[in-house]
Every structure is written in C-alpha cells, then in structure tokens.
Automatic annotation (TrEMBL):
It comes from Candidatus Kurthia intestinigallinarum. It catalyses: L-glutamyl-tRNA(Gln) + L-glutamine + ATP + H2O = L-glutaminyl-tRNA(Gln) + L-glutamate + ADP + phosphate + H(+); L-aspartyl-tRNA(Asn) + L-glutamine + ATP + H2O = L-asparaginyl-tRNA(Asn) + L-glutamate + ADP + phosphate + 2 H(+). Heterotrimer of A, B and C subunits. This is Aspartyl/glutamyl-tRNA(Asn/Gln) amidotransferase subunit C. One of its GO terms (biological process) is translation. It is an enzyme of class 6 (ligase). Belongs to the GatC family. It comes from the Bacteria. Keywords: ATP-binding, Ligase, Nucleotide-binding, Protein biosynthesis, Transferase.
C-alpha cells in the first residue's frame, strides 16, 4: 500500500485551509494512501467497451414552452403596495449611510 507522507498531507491540509494535528496527519496519510491505491487499481481496468456516462439513470430537464404573455396590470398591482414612489415599490434602505 502506498502511503502519502505526513508532509504531503499537511501541505494538502494547508491548501484546503484545514488545521490538523500530527496524529491526524499520520492517520490521513494511511487513509489517503489506501484511496490512491484503489484509484490506481481502477486505472488498470479495461473499459474499452464501456460507454461513458454522466448519470446512471436517463434523466433530462423538463422545461415548459417559453411563450411570452402579457404581464399583470401595473396600476392594479400597485394598489397593494404600502409605500411607492414614482411608480416603484419603496422599501427601507438596507445599508446604513
């Protein structure tokens, strides 16, 4: 089993902005080594007759027809607005000045 070095694990942790202890680095070195060994085993498989897939199920997006339609009447909508100014909805400021 290929084991990553503790320095490599600490370097990757630093790149990911993770704080790990020396004990964790040692543990992860062994675990990550096992993962890379498994990935290397997968590389040895013959996949020449396997069709590439992005998903195991035949999923597809369902979209409705994009048909332009007349919008709601502005005056009718503005009747429900508490505060308005120049035909627009007036809201409280969210950034203090």
């Amino acid at each position: 089993m290929a084991k990553l070095s503790v320095e490599e694990v600490k370097h990757v942790a630093k790149l990911a902005r993770l704080a790990i202890t020396d004990e964790e680095a040692e543990k992860f070195a062994t675990q990550l080594g096992a993962i890379t060994d498994f990935a290397n085993e997968l590389q040895e498989l013959d996949t020449t007759d396997v069709v590439p897939t992005t998903h195991v199920l035949p999923v597809h997006n369902v979209f409705r027809e994009d048909i332009p339609a007349k919008g709601l009447d502005r005056d009718l909508m503005m009747k429900n607005v508490k505060e308005q100014q120049d035909g627009l909805v007036k809201v409280p400021p969210i950034i203090a000045q």
